[in-house]
Write a structure and sequence with these properties.
Layout: H1 2-12, E1 26-35, E2 38-52, E3 59-66, E4 69-76, E5 82-89
Antiparallel strand pairs: 1-2, 1-5, 2-3, 3-4
């Protein structure tokens, strides 16, 4: 059954070209918002906390600070509303999912830049 689902996803779901990024990277996601008949582009810039899933059903979570409140957003990698993904900074972390980042504030919440 799983192989059948994987086959359908690989054959019929169109994949978008996205840059390679991982947990700890700071990225900007530009996506389209529809308000009534008007559409506009909005961006969400933050640190990637995790990438989850494989293939067409892959998602990634981005966290940013809005004032003193942390805001997280989950994006499916094949979301049609995503226009582009920009990588601003490559981060050096030792985990694939950096949930500990939620508890850090101020200077402790800095991530070192990777030399790639």
């Amino acid at each position: 059954m799983e192989s059948l689902i994987k086959y359908v996803q690989d054959e019929f779901v169109s994949k978008k070209e996205t840059p390679e990024f991982s947990a700890g990277d700071t990225i900007t996601v530009y996506y389209e918002i529809t308000e009534g008949q008007k559409t506009r582009t909005q961006f969400f810039r933050g640190v990637v906390i995790q990438k989850r899933g494989t293939g067409a059903s892959q998602t990634f979570t981005i966290r940013k600070m809005s004032g003193t409140v942390g805001v997280e957003r989950i994006f499916p990698i094949n979301l049609p509303a995503i226009q582009k993904i920009e990588i601003n900074k490559r981060g050096k972390v030792r985990r694939a999912r950096i949930y500990y980042f939620r508890g850090l504030t101020g200077k402790k919440a800095r991530i070192k830049e990777a030399k790639r």
